[in-house]
Amino acid sequence: MKVSVNVILASLLVVAFSSNVIADEVKPEDAIKYRKSVMTVMNWQFKPLGAMVKGDRPFDKDVFIKNAAYLEVLSKMPLEGFIAGSDKGETKAKPEIWAEMEKFKGGMEKLQAETAKLAQVSKTGDMNQIKAQFGETGKTCKACHDNFKSK
Ligand code: HEC
Q1: Residue range of the domain that includes 54
Q2: What is the Å distance from ligand 1's center to 61 Cα?
Q3: Residue 6 domain-assigned?
Q4: d(C-alpha 41, C-alpha 29), whole Å
Q5: CATH number of the domain where residue 42 is located
Q6: Residue 98 domain flag
Q7: How many domains does the structure of the chain reveal?
Q8: Buried (b) or exposed (e) across 5-31, using 16+ Cβ within 10 A?
Q9: pLDDT of residue 18
Q10: Which of 19, 72, 80, 124 is deepest in the core (most CB within 10 A)?
């Protein structure tokens, strides 16, 4: 049997097209899993810095610099997980996020700005500056959770 090249090409196109369609359709539960994972990773990187700032853990400049640099990058990641239709399911995200998306985005931008500053300041090794900037960063987490995350 001779299958024409055109038929093969056409079926390849169909396969390529349909897999594109599948990739574009992000399921709400996957978006929820994604953003919660990013938040969990941020928390993992953030917590030890809090312990160092409070004096519960010895200050380690290298760890501080590394974690702050990770946080600067991580802070760019959660927003894309808040897709339309992902306000229901295994989530603590409040519906206000989608009603006030500009404000929510502003909160994410604030987090990005403050973690970028934290990464800068950590390189100085100056505990006074580090402490102050850690506080500013923590405030952005809390402010957004107070407004947009249920308990
Ligand atoms: C602009 C908003 C915003 C900022 C800033 C923010 N968060 Fe969140 N965070 C959320 C929302 C919304 C949720 C709930 C996500 C869900 O359940 O779908 C969340 C959830 C979490 C969770 C729970 C994850 C889980 O598995 O349920 C942790 C931990 C967390 N955030 C840590 C942090 C830390 C640490 C920071 C600051 C370094 C931070 N967040 C900054 C909005 C924010």
Answers
A1: 27-148
A2: 26
A3: no
A4: 18
A5: 1.20.120.10
A6: yes
A7: 1
A8: eeeeeeeeeeeeeeeeeeeeeeebeeb
A9: 55
A10: 72
